[in-house]
From TrEMBL:
This is NIPSNAP domain-containing protein. Belongs to the NipSnap family. Pfam families: NIPSNAP. InterPro entries: Dimeric_a/b-barrel (IPR011008), NIPSNAP (IPR012577), NipSnap_domain (IPR051557).
């Protein structure tokens, strides 16, 4: 092949069809004060100033400790397990010197099936937790039920929690209800930011008295948050949540909190027959 033909072949021009390039716009609207607000700015985590006060004292003003038990039950042993736990509750309730009370016991109906949650409250802090442990470990009937319960379980998990100070006062419910527990695992160091935003956000979620309890973990899996909501049924849940999205300001609270979350999941709960809250 000659040098001339080679040059001619290389000189052939290939025309490419130009494709439009997609770009992400971060421009926003101009506010009355002249500052610009964009949707992207809402996703940025605001800086929390250093403080010498513990996060627990800043987020909770109560001395009550909440104990959340998560029990994963063998599918063939759910009935035996519930009978066992009901007897355990009766033993604890018979001890008048213990400053602990059962708030709620639930079966998971949607989410992690063959699972039960039990929420206890200790009035008086960890001192009352220690006292209850000493008392119950010396009760032979209680210990026997604990040992028997182990044969019904696949696994279990325990957390000690504190209640958020901005959450409405806990009130036990009556009648037929369902509950939803929404659990969040936050990025370490963002708990104060979460509390700042939810102190505003909770105001948008009180129209139908759905806010039952809100907690953050102290011992166990850390940087965990649990919000518990109460509804009449799944349709009521749907309508209540849609109503919140129609409220001006709710979308902004959600936008601020989403970047703080590493993992989240929800479970629909049904109270057991011996649950104080129904």
């Amino acid at each position: 092949m000659s040098l001339v033909s080679t040059i001619r072949g290389c000189a052939r021009t290939v025309y490419l069809r130009q494709q439009p390039i997609r770009t992400l716009s971060t421009s926003g609207t101009l506010l009355r004060d002249g500052s610009e607000s964009s949707w992207l700015s809402k996703l940025l985590v605001r800086k929390i100033e250093p403080t010498k006060e513990s996060h627990s004292r800043m987020l909770s003003d109560k001395y009550d400790i909440y104990e959340l038990h998560t029990h994963n039950i063998r599918p063939d042993s759910v009935g035996q397990y519930l009978k066992n736990y009901k007897n355990t509750v009766q033993i604890i309730q018979s001890k008048q010197n213990l400053s602990m009370e059962l708030i709620g016991s639930w079966n998971v109906e949607v989410g992690d099936l063959d699972q039960c949650l039990h929420l206890w409250r200790y009035t008086g802090g960890f001192e009352m937790v220690d006292q209850a442990k000493r008392e119950l470990t010396n009760d032979k009937s209680y210990v026997q039920l604990m040992q028997e319960r182990g044969t019904f379980l696949r696994s279990r998990h325990l957390q000690y929690l504190l209640a958020f100070s901005y959450w409405p006062q806990l009130k036990l419910r009556e009648g037929k209800n369902i509950y939803e527990i929404r659990s969040y695992r936050l990025k370490p160091g963002t708990m104060i930011e979460w509390g700042n935003n939810w102190a505003r956000a909770i105001n948008y979620r009180q129209n139908n008295n759905e806010a039952f309890a809100g907690y953050f973990s102290q011992i166990g899996r850390l940087y965990n948050v649990h919000h518990i909501w109460c509804y009449k049924d799944l349709q009521g849940r749907k309508e209540t949540r849609e109503s919140a999205w129609r409220s001006p300001g709710w979308d902004e609270c959600v936008a601020y909190t989403v970047p703080l979350i590493r993992e989240m999941h929800c479970r629909i709960l049904a109270p057991t027959e011996f649950s104080p809250t129904q």
